[in-house]
């Protein structure tokens, strides 16, 4: 049986401490047992203290090293930066605080190879010192019967207990209870997580204790933490499960839709349905709010809220917020919902109704701007519509610009808005306004009424005169007729396009002007009306007799010429020669007597104007008998005048 009062570990302590080196290196001293015995497989704690000169104090970064003198290997060090021999790693531990002058170290599971001399060295920046004068001798004895058993080892204790709070630093201590053999053991930490990756992790080992400090997070909740104590190659441990309280965190999940969800933005098509899930992780459980009380359909679960949107419309395209709160804080996440739809409510600037119209003055500019409600924005295009075709027009961003308007630009136009979800159209009629132009004169086909060159009209006195003035203009022009009087004044004679005179007299002759006007401008064109006088019956009879007499005289002359030629051909040649030698000396004079016809009763009885010249009624007729003379001896021509006097 093991008796606690029996010491298995035997120390043979030399009472003499080295004191002769002070004269060589004043201020550097080391106090420890010069000789230590330990049984194989057991452990031993070796107390040690050292000093340095007062003018060279130790810094917080000073490193203490124990090494075996017969090898260059380091067996124990105060920092992990020093490379410790694999044969002693985990068994030799520098347990003292070097910066406080403590160089104590322990040996567990002692091995025969551990026997030998050991010396201590300090390194502080560029300075270092080896306490070679104060070497320590370790002797390992064989005692197999004293091996430590697991059943004899007490479990370590981890404190404090209770729950942790995420983000709040915590310090845990593992205490190793001494083994019955007197070994305090070597302490290590472990668990499901890698300890060195804990936030603000720090470990501090003391004799029989190991202290760790870290800041827990939500990830460490329900993670095991184990403290293991090793006594001479035999270990025991104790574990706890970390309970971490933390503020809420939210994860958004979207399902049941045809669209895209990226960077907290959801895009869906009008008419679709979607489920937006707000899943909350927290400890303790959080209160969750996600659209309740706002008219939305919300499905509730212990850690989740599901917002159900069915047959979405443009009004559903808003930002939805999920809020979670517990004793450690609150958090919110948002989802921006964008609803896409086909173009609608197409609109043309300055157009307030379907099938409206816009007016533009010829020669000016015209700009038509088309817009439409749609998501994504629609591609807008213009076309001029015809009976069987639609011609596309160049336009930019829904704007159709015409820099110089002509009548060809008039007509029906259509704006089409199109995106990936559909299209919409709107139409407008463009009316081109222009001043009157292209004036033309039209006339009726009445006896004695005609048009010469479309600039003058001759009409017989007493007949009817009908003139019409037509002009091309938009809006339709107002047409009127004016006449330029002999005194230079202008008199308006008609307020319509027609000029109608049923009984033309000499007073109706003159220059007429057709005037046209609309709200864009005006123009005019002139025409001359010539009135032809009608002859009286006396003049008609006199002129008939005169022309009849002239006709008779001409006919008689022609007959005489023909008779003479006929006789000439029938005479013998000698007669012809004689006649050539003795041409006749006398000519037969032909008179044409024109008698005045008795005046008809209905002729004008008024006498001629006394102021007229008496020669006014003389008529002259010329008779030419030159062709009756022989060709060999032509005689000078004589003119026969017949005087006709009007009584």
Automatic annotation (TrEMBL):
Gene name of this polypeptide: siglecl2
Presence of keyword Lyase: no
Region feature (Disordered): 570-647
UniProt topology in membrane: Single-pass type I membrane protein
Name of the protein: Sialic acid-binding Ig-like lectin like 2
GO CC entries: membrane
Keywords: Cell adhesion, Lectin, Membrane, Signal, Transmembrane, Transmembrane helix
UniProt-annotated location(s): Membrane
A GO molecular-function descriptor: carbohydrate binding
Protein family according to the UniProt entry: Belongs to the immunoglobulin superfamily. SIGLEC (sialic acid binding Ig-like lectin) family.
Entry annotated with the keyword Phosphoprotein: no
InterPro entries per record: Ig-like_dom, Ig-like_dom_sf, Ig-like_fold, Ig_I-set, Ig_sub, Ig_sub2, Ig_V-set, SIGLEC
Chain segments annotated as transmembrane: 544-564
Domain spans labelled Ig-like: 154-241, 248-338, 343-431, 436-528
Biological process according to GO: cell adhesion
Pfam families in the record: I-set (PF07679), Ig_2 (PF13895), Ig_3 (PF13927), V-set (PF07686)
Gene3D superfamilies: Immunoglobulins
Signal peptide: 1-23
């Amino acid at each position: 049986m093991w008796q606690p009062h029996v010491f298995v570990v035997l120390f043979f302590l030399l009472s003499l401490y080295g004191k002769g080196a002070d004269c060589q290196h004043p201020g550097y001293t080391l106090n420890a047992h010069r000789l230590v015995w330990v049984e194989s497989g057991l452990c031993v704690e070796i107390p040690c203290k050292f000093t340095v000169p007062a003018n060279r104090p130790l810094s917080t970064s000073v490193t203490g090293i124990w090494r075996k003198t017969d090898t260059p290997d380091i067996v124990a060090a105060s920092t992990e930066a020093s490379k410790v021999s694999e044969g002693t790693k985990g068994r030799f531990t520098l347990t003292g605080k070097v910066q406080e002058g403590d160089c104590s170290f322990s040996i567990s599971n002692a091995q025969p190879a551990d026997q030998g001399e050991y010396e201590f060295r300090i390194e502080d920046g560029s300075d270092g010192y080896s306490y070679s004068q104060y070497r320590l001798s370790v002797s390992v004895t064989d005692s197999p019967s004293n091996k430590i058993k697991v059943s004899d080892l007490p479990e370590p204790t981890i404190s404090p207990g209770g729950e942790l709070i995420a983000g709040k630093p915590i310090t845990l201590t593992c205490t190793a209870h001494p083994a019955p053999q007197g070994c305090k053991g070597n302490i290590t930490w472990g668990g499901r997580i890698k300890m060195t990756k804990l936030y603000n992790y720090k470990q501090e080992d003391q004799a029989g204790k190991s202290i760790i400090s870290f800041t827990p997070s939500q990830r460490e909740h329900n993670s095991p933490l184990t403290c293991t104590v090793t006594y001479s190659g035999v270990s025991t441990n104790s574990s706890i499960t970390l309970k971490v309280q933390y503020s809420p965190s939210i994860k958004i999940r979207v399902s049941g839709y045809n669209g895209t969800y990226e960077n907290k933005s959801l895009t869906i098509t009008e008419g679709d349905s979607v489920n937006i899930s707000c899943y909350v992780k927290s400890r303790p459980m959080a209160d969750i709010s996600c659209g309740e009380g706002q008219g939305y359909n919300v499905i509730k679960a212990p850690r989740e809220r599901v917002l159900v949107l069915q047959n979405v419309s443009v009004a559903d395209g808003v930002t939805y917020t999920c809020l979670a709160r517990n004793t450690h804080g609150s958090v919110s996440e948002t989802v921006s919902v964008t609803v896409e739809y086909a173009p609608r409510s197409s609109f043309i600037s300055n157009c307030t109704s379907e099938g409206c119209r816009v007016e533009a003055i010829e020669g000016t500019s015209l700009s038509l701007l088309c817009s439409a409600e749609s998501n994504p924005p629609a591609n807008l295009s213009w076309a001029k519509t015809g009976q069987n075709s639609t011609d596309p027009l160049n336009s930019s961003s829904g704007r159709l610009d015409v820099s110089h308007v002509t009548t060809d630009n008039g007509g029906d136009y259509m704006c089409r808005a199109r995106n990936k979800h559909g299209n919409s159209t709107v139409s407008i009629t463009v009316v081109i306004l222009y001043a009157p132009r292209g004036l033309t004169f039209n006339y009726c086909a009445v006896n004695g009424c005609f048009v010469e060159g479309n600039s003058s009209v001759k009409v017989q006195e007493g007949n009817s005169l009908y003139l019409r003035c037509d002009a091309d203009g938009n809006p339709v022009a107002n047409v009127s007729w004016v006449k330029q009087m002999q005194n230079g004044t202008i008199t308006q004679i008609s307020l319509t396009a027609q000029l109608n005179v049923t009984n033309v007299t000499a007073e109706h002759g003159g220059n007429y002007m057709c005037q046209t006007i609309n709200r864009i401008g005006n123009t005019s064109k002139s025409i001359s009306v010539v009135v032809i006088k009608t002859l009286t019956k006396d003049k008609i009879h006199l002129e008939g007799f005169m022309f009849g007499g002239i006709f008779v005289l001409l006919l008689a002359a022609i007959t005489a010429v023909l008779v003479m030629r006929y006789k000439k051909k029938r005479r013998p040649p000698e007669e012809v020669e004689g006649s050539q030698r003795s041409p006749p000396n006398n000519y037969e004079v032909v008179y044409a007597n024109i008698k005045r016809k008795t005046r008809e009763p209905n002729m004008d009885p008024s006498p001629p104007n006394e102021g007229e010249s008496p020669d006014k009624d003389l008529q002259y007729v010329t008779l030419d008998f030159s062709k009756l003379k022989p060709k060999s001896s032509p005689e000078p021509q004589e003119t026969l005048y017949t005087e006709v006097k009007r009584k």
